[in-house]
Design a protein that fits this description.
This protein is mainly beta. It folds into four domains: 17-22 and 143-259, Immunoglobulins (Immunoglobulin-like, Sandwich), CATH 2.60.40; 24-139, no CATH class; 268-385, Immunoglobulin-like (Sandwich); 406-653, no CATH class. It is 6% helix and 45% strand. The strands form eight sheets. Strands 31, 32, 33, 34, 37, 38, 42, 44, 45, 47, 48 and 49 form a twelve-stranded mixed β-sheet that branches. Strands 23, 24, 25, 26, 27, 28, 29 and 30 form an eight-stranded antiparallel β-sheet that branches. Strands 13, 15, 16, 17, 20, 21 and 22 form a seven-stranded mixed β-sheet that branches.
Amino acid sequence: MFSSLCIRRALVILALALPVTAWANLNGTPTLPANTSLSLDTGATSSTGGDIFWSATSMTPQGNAAAFNIGPVGSSGFGILTQATLSSLPGYSQSAIPSSSLGVNDVFAVRTNGNNYAAVLVTAVSGTSITLQFTTFGVSGTASGPAVTAVQNNYSEIPAGFSNSGIAQGALFIVIGSGLADPNAQAVLQSSAGSGLPNTLNGASVKVTVNGTSTVPVFYYAIAGALGLVMPSNTPPGAGQITVTYNGQTSSPYTIQVVPTAMGFDAYYGTGSGLGVATNAATGVLYNYSNSIPPSTTVTLWGSGLGADPARDSKYVGAAFAINTLAHVYIGGVDATILYQGASGFPGLNQVNVTIPSSTPTGCNISLVGVTGAGIPTNFTTLPIGSGPCTDPAFGLTGSQLQTLSGQSTVRTGFVGLSQSTSAAATGTTPQVADIAIGVFQSHTGSSSAESSAPVSFGSCVVNQTLSATPGNGTTTALDAGAITVTGPTGTVALMGVPQQPGYYEMQLTSNFIPASGGSFSFQGSGGKDVGSFTAPVVFSNPILTWTNQKASATVTRSAGQTVTWTGGASGTFVAIEGNSSSLSPAAYGSFTCFAPTNAGQFTVPGYVLAAMPAGSGELTVANYSNFQTFSASGLDYGISYGSVTYSIDTVYQ
């Protein structure tokens, strides 16, 4: 049951969980004549310097800036790029991008001289001039007035365009942009005691208008780049607009969707996914990788968006108030008993008390998702289930190691692998088979370094829904690992470093390098200036896996779930079922990943997982991975090697 002990602890959880953005995003739409430089950190143009230089024949990075041409993905592709996505691209180079590659709708990424990341869209080319639209993530706001670039649930961070997006009545939500409040203000959480949360803070005020009715949210915090707010419970549901006023100037209206319910569970690192926040319902202990949750334990899950709670729109009220909008909470695919869902006492902050089912699988990343009676899911997070440090033997790292790594500001990783991929169009064209060897060596700084070596444990599924704008999730830097070779039953092959993608190695292999009978392989690294020498094994089963109902997966009915079947593969290894889909109107891109033990022979992707995907075209992939093997090398916190056999098919999600 709901307890006063949980109320007293909720303030601590609230302080932990509210993501605070100290930086804003800079937006611009400049037209560059020939021989003009552009600073993506300030928006200024000049004849020299800046981050990129347009010569009419090419776009060239300047100084220490580097660029990566993503390609003609258009405004929809540009709109879903985030700082986290841009920072993870391994192909930044100081090479010029030729004008022949910069037609209308081309998008390229830039790592600026200020070490920020920018997405740039070509909107027009006329004679020797080029017109661009850009967003630079993580620069201090210098705009003349407030500008809103994103509005999202404080915890789920799901953008518009998905069935489970929207801001619920009574929910905690964040507004991201630039010039939103006093640029010198600090992110100090306001108290909901006494007179309650304020409706103006650090010079900022906010108005929401839906169907002609306007309401005024209250503030938890306000800084130039982000506002933490509570949506008034009496805001009507429907499509509406939000405006921010600061220093006598009001932002352009930003379209939002207010809904009765759209729950978002809190994630440990404030990213809307990954390790979820769960506390012991009796003691308040916070669980993590080194202190996993025993099955049959009752825990409290934290978040916001269950629905309207008029008594707590601005003030703390300790009495319980049930908001029963979740019909299910699935943990590792097992339906958990919900003991209480509703108010925590603090404005906008909800709690859900559940008992971990005794039949829940154990592992470091067991999926957690709530589902409404209409079948609409929350965001997907994970929980460590087990006793003491969690364990996922197939993925190479223990819970103790994960907890240690999650506490580091920088984690240096290495991955080497062999992959055989077979792809076919849904029309039944001849499948294309490719064998490839890869190596990726990187240093991760920021919250990206807290990620596990696998997104989800056996029997679980997670969904990623791409954001249109969000605070940054860290940066990634390439590491030099020297020369790398791989030896198998048919000989030895040297991997080539990719000049445009530092830290990335690959080699297209001959068709028989990975035989149908599998076999043992070994990677050898000579060592480079960042990473020492190493040896890493990879073993393929005999026979390798075959996806047996591939053709039946050309069309996926999301509400019905999707079963995949296979034969082959080694017992003790695992199968990854992955899919993606996208829609153009509204622009949305979703992907899911499910892991199952190979010896199960089949897995059904639940309907509530597919419900989070946009209807549209995409892909479905089934891959058998060998168990991850760890290897050691100086300069790395950990190294992992693996082999995979992958089948993919073009798919329509309906």
